[in-house]
Amino acid sequence: MANLGFTIGVGQAIRRYGLERAREIYNSYGEAVDTVERLANEESIDCQFRRVGRLGVASRPAHFESKKAQQRDLAKYFGRETTLIGKAELRSEIGSDVYHGGLLDPFNAALHVGRFVRGMAEACERTGVEIHERNAAIGVRRTAAGRFEVNTERGVIRAGQVMMATDAYTDKNFPWLRRQQVCVGSFIIVTKPLGEELARGIIPKARLIVDSNKVCHYFRLTPDNRLLFGGRARFAPSDPTSDKKSGAVLFREMCGNFPQLSRTRIEYVWGGSVAFAMDRIVHAGQTEDGVYHSLGYAGHGAQMATHMGKVMDGHPEVSPVRDIAPPRIPLYNGTAWFLPFAGAYYKTLDRIR
């Protein structure tokens, strides 16, 4: 999913940053989706990019009231027109009765991220870029001449500029960056092809759907009519064992939303990590010794990581978050020991609110 809008409320963003800066940050998310679309078109990347629209569904009646306020604020402060859909009309968008309405933004997009990444890599190589896979960077040093030496598992790379773009995959060799973000597992299951009739009964207009819970689910149809269903599932890192357990959790939760899929076979399950700064917005800039960095995409990495690479191309001063430092996390050394407790807390809130 390549979605517009940040992961905090409009009012909260305005209180934090003021209207003009909040608008600049918000608009950058829309520009990021445009960047992905432009690159896919210019480089002829067959990544199934489609502007299908995002439907944020309300998991509780009170959440629908928040959707109404969100719609008003988006129109008033950001000029963004969205469509509010009440519970009675929601069946035209989703074949489930568990939600209490939704807010539709028509400009959000779906894409096949794996194909996009491969297409971008091929486009880079056509211009002479060297891509070094399976060669982890283990340290960066600025030389007396003002250039950089990047120590890797296979030797030293010398460069005039260095960009730390590792986000949730920043390892312990770079603790200063790792401490600025919390990494959370995110997991996905994909069904077998459902057939046109069943697929359209689930999501008739092929929207991207995200629920309003704190431990949320996100799901959409693929072009071959599979249901892709994702979420946090378990507050644990991704590995083959964890992915399998998380897939079982997601299957139960998927069937809770869509009982008609209870006998449907799951053909794929995978997991990965997403990174959050404590204030839940992207952060980008330059360290004192000149290393560029961008991090904390909070689940918006497909578009924002792509876009921030373009924005940060030697000009960090043009970044919409140019002078906003991520808040420090108390008692945190880069290992999120508190995640199981935080997960239990947020799941409890989802049950009672």
TrEMBL record:
Alphabetical list of Pfam families matching this protein: DAO (PF01266)
Segments forming domain FAD dependent oxidoreductase: 19-312
PANTHER family linked: FAD DEPENDENT OXIDOREDUCTASE DOMAIN-CONTAINING PROTEIN, SARCOSINE DEHYDROGENASE-RELATED
Entry protein name: FAD-binding oxidoreductase
Organism: Streptomyces longisporus
Lineage: Bacteria, Bacillati, Actinomycetota, Actinomycetes, Kitasatosporales
